[in-house]
Amino acid sequence: MHDETYHYNEQRWQALVAADALFTRPALDLDPDKARAYLDLDRLGVPGDLAGRRVLCLASGGGQQSAAFALLGADVTVVDISSGQLARDRQAAEHYGVAVRTVQGDMRDLSDLDHATFDLVWHPYSLNFVPDCLVVFREVARVLAEGGHYHLMCANPAFSGLTHHTWTGEGYLLTQPYTEGAATSYPDQEWVYDGEPAGRIRPPREYRHTLDRVVNGLLGEGFALTFLAESREHYPDAEPGSWAHFIGVAPPWLDSVWRYRPASSPEAGVPRP
Predict the structure, then answer these.
(1) How many percent of the chain have pLDDT more than 70?
(2) What distance in Å separates the CA atoms of residue 73 and residue 187, rounded to the nearest whole number?
(3) Under DSSP, is residue 145 helix (H, G, I), strand (E, B) or coil?
(4) Is residue 64 part of a domain?
(5) Are strands 75-80 and 100-104 parallel, antiparallel or unpaired?
(6) Where is the Methyltransferase type domain positioned along the sequence (predicted)?
(7) Could you read off the pLDDT of 246-260 as tens digits, one per residue?
(8) 270, part of any domain
(9) DSSP helix, strand, coil percent of the chain (3-state; round to 5)
């Protein structure tokens, strides 16, 4: 599915790797205890015994989550659009002496992966880089084994496209209609580059996925919600108009975990439409 969206995201992430942006830096200081704390599995309610478990890190290159799961004994596969990001996963795997499989591809097309292959799909912030979330959910349902878990982090749709740059002196101004699939863009945050300017790297192009679309889309594929949290960070002394102040007013991310219970199972949760 090498459409314009694919090429935009691939080129942007290749440029981010070249710039050593935050999410492209492999985690090279982990041990099993640090890996477990980094993944925060207890909070999410994901089974903590990962020895031999089959984990797909979806659109999750960079040598961070893949390394953490591998250190905990999981059988790890990473799918990412950027060859540079996948190189960082191989770098981290070599550093720790663990095995990680890397596959370059689009989260909307997992045809290189077999049906019902994984016990856990770990999907950090990336869903909003594609215009149709339902395509992704269908692919996740196909490769996830019955009873498996799907961890999804995505933009809080109420504040999608809103950043601290929209400070008016009194609050953060919402100007975009709450429309499924609407495209938005904004400057990268300063912390992505340790305060250094991004140069000529193109800004992220994101698409709003409304809450009802996400929730009903996953329910329709046979998923049952087991955990949901908004990003909760509060800095009382933060300067209004700063990123730290903004995230205390408008939580920018949602974190969720879903259990796959397809309709054909006797223990199915919500039937497919």
Answers:
(1) 94
(2) 38
(3) strand
(4) yes
(5) parallel
(6) 56-150
(7) 999 999 999 999 999
(8) no
(9) 35, 20, 45
